[in-house]
């Protein structure tokens, strides 16, 4: 007797174990007329719909010939922050560049001010609501960064919120310390001293189990390649895995640095050089691409996903959800942008938000694939096939989402037709 049996699945999407590099990203196992059962939070059985008719389960779900996939993995979010930045939209419309807004003390620094001012409880409550929205869009595992504190107490406050969300929610959150995200006003002109300050926090973060990864914003006017190398080295010496916001705006060589340091991921890569792109094929660093950010910043030039995949890199996709450069938690929308703006195929896109995304955050052995014995992180999509999601953009196609076999979200029908209103009788 299984706990749950999803039967009558039109398409069951089974990404292979990864990380998938280059041509391997073009393969996607798509099985038709299937069924899937969970027990004790794990996938317990996968077979044909015909075989499923003999099975017993406490709950039977009719997928109505729609599509079932692993829970999505979002490997790059700035989940926890105070305030919002809708006032910057006008600046962006006036053509003020992202880095200039930052230099003027706005952008990331305005979120830093708001985050420092908010209590841990308020940050938790806000992030909790965001997390529910994220889950409703089909994501069951995600990464969450700090980086809006830029001083000890506020950075730890953000990391404690992530830890608590991981403990108290059903979702899996992977925590990243992004202390070197910007230079706070009190350290203007003293970048090295600020970096030292962030490096001094690493032992405490490690001892308290507040983060598994570290990250740094390597960019003109923020942190240099040399500073990034120093921070990554210090992180690795303490047992952290590393990530880097690399080559987002200027081609500083962050991609090459990430590969040479065996970073888990290099993220953004819009301006990565040909050498940087080529280096990805030889290393184990996953290229995490964030087309939602390019879109939101109003740029025409997207990361060269085609060249990366065609030359052998492992590519993943993420939202980069944050209050300034990408204000969406809809990973399905990112899948559409990957198709429309980066010419990724549907198969490459699905591998990028499942298996490769899981590898980018050190969860390749527990998330991103569906096989017997794995956590039952499953999405039932209200779509006829897997190609439909990148095609029909900006909607939420998730019909039901299970995390470790427990339903964390289900779409309730709209009440647009035929609902009697109070006092209308009959
Ligand atoms: O990944 N590029 C740096 N950090 C974030 C943006 C954060 C913000 O603008 O608040 C990013 O895009
Ligand atoms: Fe980011």
UniProtKB/TrEMBL annotation:
Pfam families: Amidohydro_1. The keyword Chaperone does not apply. It is found in: Cytoplasm. N-formimidoyl-L-glutamate binds at residues 148, 322, 324. Belongs to the metallo-dependent hydrolases superfamily. HutI family. One of its GO terms (biological process) is L-histidine catabolic process to glutamate and formamide. Catalyzes the hydrolytic cleavage of the carbon-nitrogen bond in imidazolone-5-propanoate to yield N-formimidoyl-L-glutamate. It is the third step in the universal histidine degradation pathway. GO terms for cellular component: cytoplasm. It catalyses: 4-imidazolone-5-propanoate + H2O = N-formimidoyl-L-glutamate. Keywords: Cytoplasm, Histidine metabolism, Hydrolase, Iron, Metal-binding, Zinc. This is Imidazolonepropionase. Gene3D superfamilies: Metal-dependent hydrolases (3.20.20.140), Urease, subunit C, domain 1 (2.30.40.10). Pathway: Amino-acid degradation; L-histidine degradation into L-glutamate; N-formimidoyl-L-glutamate from L-histidine: step 3/3. Zn(2+) binds at residues 76, 78, 245, 320.
């Amino acid at each position: 007797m299984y706990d749950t049996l999803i039967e009558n699945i039109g398409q069951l999407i089974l990404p292979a174990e990864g990380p998938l590099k280059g041509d391997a990203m073009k393969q996607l196992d798509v099985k038709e007329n299937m069924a899937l059962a969970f027990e004790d939070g794990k996938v317990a059985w996968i077979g044909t719909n015909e075989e499923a008719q003999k099975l017993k389960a406490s709950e039977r779900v009719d997928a109505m010939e729609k599509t079932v996939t692993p829970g999505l993995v979002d490997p790059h979010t700035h989940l926890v922050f105070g305030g919002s930045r809708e006032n910057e939209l006008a600046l962006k419309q006036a053509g003020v560049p992202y880095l200039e807004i930052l230099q003027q003390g706005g952008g990331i620094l305005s979120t830093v001010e708001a985050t420092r001012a908010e209590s841990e409880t308020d940050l938790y409550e806000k992030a909790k609501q965001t997390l529910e929205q994220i889950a409703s869009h089909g994501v069951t595992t995600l990464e969450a960064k700090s980086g809006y504190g830029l001083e000890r107490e506020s950075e730890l406050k953000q990391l404690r919120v992530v830890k608590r969300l991981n403990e108290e929610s059903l979702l899996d959150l992977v925590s990243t310390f992004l202390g070197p995200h910007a230079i706070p006003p009190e350290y203007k002109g003293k970048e090295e001293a600020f970096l030292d300050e962030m490096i001094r926090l690493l032992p405490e973060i490690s001892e308290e189990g507040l983060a598994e990864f570290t990250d740094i914003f390597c960019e003109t006017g923020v942190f240099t390649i040399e500073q990034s190398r120093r921070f990554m080295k210090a992180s690795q010496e303490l047992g952290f895995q590393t990530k880097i916001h690399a080559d987002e705006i200027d081609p500083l060589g962050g991609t090459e640095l990430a590969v040479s340091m065996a970073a888990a991921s290099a993220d953004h890569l819009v301006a990565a050089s040909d050498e940087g792109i080529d280096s990805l094929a030889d290393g184990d660093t996953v290229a995490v691409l964030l087309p939602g950010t390019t879109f939101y910043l109003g740029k025409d030039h997207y990361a060269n996903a085609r060249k990366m995949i065609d030359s052998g890199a492992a590519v993943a996709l993420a939202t980069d959800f944050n209050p300034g450069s990408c204000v969406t938690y809809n990973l399905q929308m990112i899948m559409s942008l990957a198709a429309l703006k980066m010419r990724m195929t549907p198969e490459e896109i699905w591998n990028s938000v499942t298996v490769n995304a899981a590898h980018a955050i050190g969860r390749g052995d527990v998330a991103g694939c569906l096989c017997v014995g794995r956590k039952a992180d499953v999405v039932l999509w209200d779509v006829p096939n897997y190609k439909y999601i990148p095609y029909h953009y900006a909607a939420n196609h998730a019909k039901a989402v299970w995390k470790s076999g427990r339903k964390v979200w289900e779409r309730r029908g709209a009440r647009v037709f035929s609902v009697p209103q109070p006092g209308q009788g009959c």
